[in-house]
Sequence to fold (446 residues):
Amino acid sequence: MTDTFAPPKTLTAPKVGIVSLGCPKALVDSERILTQLRSEGYEISGSYDNADVVLVNTCGFLDSARTESLDAIGEAIKENGKVIVTGCLGKDAELIRQTHPQVLAVTGPQQYEQVVNAVHEVVPPRHDPYVDLVPPQGLRLTPRHYAYLKISEGCNNRCTFCIIPSLRGDLVSRPANRVLMEAESLVKAGVKELLVISQDTSAYGVDVKYAESQYKGRAVKARFLDLARELGQLGAWVRMHYVYPYPHVDEVIPLMAEGAILPYLDIPFQHAAPGVLKAMKRPGNQIKVLERIRSWRAICPDLTLRSTFIVGFPGETEADFQYLLDWLTEAQIDRLGCFKYEPVKGATANDLPGAVPEEVKQERWERLMAHQQAISAARLQAKVGRTIEVIVDEVDEEGAVARSKGDAPEIDGNVYLNGDTALKPGDIVSAKVVHADEYDMWAERV
Ligand code: SF4
Fold:
């Protein structure tokens, strides 16, 4: 069917569709690519039909993510036909081309220039000074009031279940002034919450020996504590993700206690049993970690700890698993994600003896989730009656959906303000908690 009302093709801006899969870090990559394309006059299309080309930003972390990525590429080819692939799975160009020979170009993670060049080849940019304007904060795929701030790429660790270092290479930190300037422009553009991400946030700056750079006429070190302190002065909520319990992490807890950054630490512990941690090549003596968690909470009683764990890692015994449950009882982790071990293609853990049968993985996963639900429910119940600050994410005719300082978007719980329809996304208000379950809270504005 021809749309007789559409302007001639040559006068319209070329349109790019995007399918963004994977983790928040991949989302930041998508946002950067779109910002560049938008600045060149491309429009972003919300549907396959309208797009002149579709970008699929893939994830290659787990086998399930690889399958999802390949399926998404297939769908984009079926629906549109002109497809460029980028992201982590782009490292495996051969697999992509074998599965989907129609793909026009394949680029890897962070190859922003190559992706943009590939788009130019398929549909050249059309210069238009009125269309080319891009807001200074760039284009974000996340809602306007929060934004992810990527501080480094890659990782120096070699956890045996993970292929990220082979996909993304060793740690490369962004200069502190670049990170701060980006954060500042996001806040100026209305962002109320900055989510600091990287593969290993607490290792920030190790690769550049904590090099100083000039920001607002002073030297700022590329160091976790210095960056946290500077970000804390921008007037937005600052939330730290993917932090490892290195000793210097203790230094940021007072910043949380004084309210400069959010009292929230996302630390992917992955396990607690010493034997499993050793096989995973994870640093850390979990007994010392328990002591440190206690001392963090003594300094900052409102600290929310979020973590992820893997059950069914090769060699994990019932005793190891029980150790983990007991450790969780002690650690009182507030928010928890749990994965059943998946043998990711290329991960060294696949060669370890003692594969755990699928039904045992499932059974441990269920036990861990039930164990954690009881911990989480009790911890949230303790907040009933307290007045807390919340940030609003959505408002509809039934009320507002918000989050507390202890809830990261998309992964943690919500705070429901039933009937409160006068708020708007990004508002930060005080509310009294009136009810809680295992994951969410209900509150009334005060
Ligand atoms: S810290 Fe471990 S799990 Fe995280 S990216 Fe680095 S190697 Fe992978």
